[in-house]
């Protein structure tokens, strides 16, 4: 045990409590046919919770953590604190990048040794802890070597370094029985077209992803390969802009049956979409894998990665997830960080507790909406005309035949109300 969370007891479900407690999240409550824990599948993000120093674009570190040092003793201390927090929260999963958990070595080989030593620490802790690995990934964006991308880098040596790093992270994820492996292209894009060969970079990115899929099968990894779309920031344009863009990319390189998506709320907003839009589209395309739950500050133009507090937004996201059948290997990862003024250990616990309760409220409201069937009944009614034999036959017809039928019918079809405000009022009954 460490003394970082000294005095903070494990968080329990206690609806009437005045201190730190879950007021809406009872992991054993049955919702839509599953335990709430099994529906939501919460995960803590190692990077924001334990590696982020509390900076922003205009100011540096505000957090002072006892493990903030660039050596292996500090990395082991960080792992001790992380697993202690997983236990306090009672979460079933965590996620990590390689750079979150180990210090950078003076060579690739040294970084790999450091990484593998901490993976062994994780493995030992996971023998007694209930927390498992939702997904692992590689940080191919923070170090200066990745300033021009990883897979898309103009330097083949950095492409090779990136491939080797991904291999190590996939091996570790496999070793820890991770349920997914994520590729997050933080700098797979461009800042200016003046020095960019778009076609070459996309082909390199496609080749790297193909190598990842091949290696998954080579080592017998049974988890899901996930790509995380993001439109911009830090790059002016990134090749994995949104769900639709990634789907086209996967089709182009023949990977649409091998790869699914890890969707983040903040990235959806940066792309000009709602989170529920991205989830619904991924579901329609057969690509829904997992989610990173957070929120943006809508008065800021960048990805602020705040913990979720908006129940109506969260409800609509889980509505689409439940419509799709719920998570399989995926889950709800809190890719969210404290505000830089929130300095205390209690802040870190309270942020997760509040977010978990918001998600529980949202999922329960979404399940009730689905069960009551008011929205889906309205949707079915709106498209009911397409259920007729004539309408279905028209889809297999041709323009000339359809035109002849329209002219012969003499009918003048009139628009029908989309009932948007009525449907929004229905949602508001639940949230």
From TrEMBL:
Binding-site residues for Mg(2+) 2, renumbered to this chain: 264, 267, 303, 305
Top-level EC class: isomerase
Subcellular locations according to the entry: Cytoplasm
Organism: Paracoccus tegillarcae
Oligomeric and partner information: Homotetramer.
Cofactor binding description: Binds 2 magnesium ions per subunit.
Molecular function per GO: magnesium ion binding; xylose isomerase activity
Active-site annotation: 97, 100
Keywords of this entry: Carbohydrate metabolism, Cytoplasm, Isomerase, Magnesium, Metal-binding, Xylose metabolism
Statement: the UniProt record of this protein carries the keyword Cell division: no
GO cellular component: cytoplasm
EC nos: 5.3.1.5
GO BP annotations listed: D-xylose metabolic process
Family matches, as InterPro entries: Xyl_isomerase-like_sf (IPR036237), Xylose_isom_bac (IPR013452), Xylose_isomerase (IPR001998)
Main location: cytoplasm
Catalytic activity: alpha-D-xylose = alpha-D-xylulofuranose
Residues the entry annotates as binding Mg(2+) 1: 228, 264, 292, 335
Family under the similarity heading: Belongs to the xylose isomerase family.
Protein name, entry field: Xylose isomerase
Cofactor: Mg(2+)
């Amino acid at each position: 045990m460490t003394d970082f969370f000294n005095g903070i007891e494990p968080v329990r479900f206690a609806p009437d409590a005045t201190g730190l407690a879950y007021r809406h999240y009872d992991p054993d409550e049955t919702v839509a046919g599953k335990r709430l824990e099994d529906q939501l599948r919460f995960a803590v993000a190692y990077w924001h919770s334990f590696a982020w120093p509390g900076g922003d674009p205009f100011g540096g570190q505000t957090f002072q953590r006892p493990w903030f040092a660039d050596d292996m003793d500090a990395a082991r201390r960080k792992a001790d604190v992380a697993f202690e927090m997983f236990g306090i929260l009672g979460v079933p999963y965590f996620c990590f990048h390689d750079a979150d958990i180990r210090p950078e070595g003076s060579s690739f080989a040294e970084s790999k040794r450091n990484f593998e030593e901490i993976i062994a620490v994780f493995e030992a802790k996971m023998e007694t802890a209930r927390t498992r690995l939702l997904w692992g990934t590689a940080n191919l964006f923070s170090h200066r070597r990745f300033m021009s991308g990883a897979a898309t880098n103009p330097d083949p040596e950095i492409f090779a370094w990136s491939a080797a790093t991904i291999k190590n992270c996939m091996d570790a994820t496999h070793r820890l029985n991770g349920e997914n492996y994520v590729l997050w292209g933080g700098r797979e894009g461009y800042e200016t077209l003046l020095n960019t060969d778009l076609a070459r970079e996309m082909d390199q990115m496609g080749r790297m992803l193909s190598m990842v899929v091949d290696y998954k099968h080579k080592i017998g990894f049974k988890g899901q390969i996930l790509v995380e779309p993001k439109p911009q920031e830090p790059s002016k344009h990134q090749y994995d802009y949104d769900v639709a863009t990634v789907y086209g990319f996967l089709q182009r390189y023949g990977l649409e049956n091998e790869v699914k998506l890890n969707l983040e709320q903040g990235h959806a907003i940066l792309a000009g979409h709602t989170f529920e839009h991205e989830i619904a589209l991924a579901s329609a395309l057969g690509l829904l894998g997992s989610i990173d739950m957070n929120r943006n500050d809508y008065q800021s133009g960048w990805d602020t990665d705040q913990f979720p507090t908006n129940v109506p937004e969260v409800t609509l996201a889980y509505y689409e997830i439940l419509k799709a059948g719920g998570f399989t290997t995926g889950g709800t990862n809190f890719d969210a960080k404290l505000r830089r003024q929130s300095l205390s250990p209690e802040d870190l616990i309270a942020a997760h507790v509040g977010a978990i309760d918001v998600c529980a409220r949202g999922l329960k409201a979404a399940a009730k909406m689905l069960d009551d069937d008011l929205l889906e009944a309205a949707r079915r009614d709106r498209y009911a005309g397409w259920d007729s034999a004539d309408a279905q036959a028209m889809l297999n017809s041709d323009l000339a035949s359809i035109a002849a039928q329209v002219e012969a019918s003499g009918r003048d079809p009139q628009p029908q109300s989309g009932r948007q405000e009525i449907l929004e009022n229905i949602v508001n009954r639940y949230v």
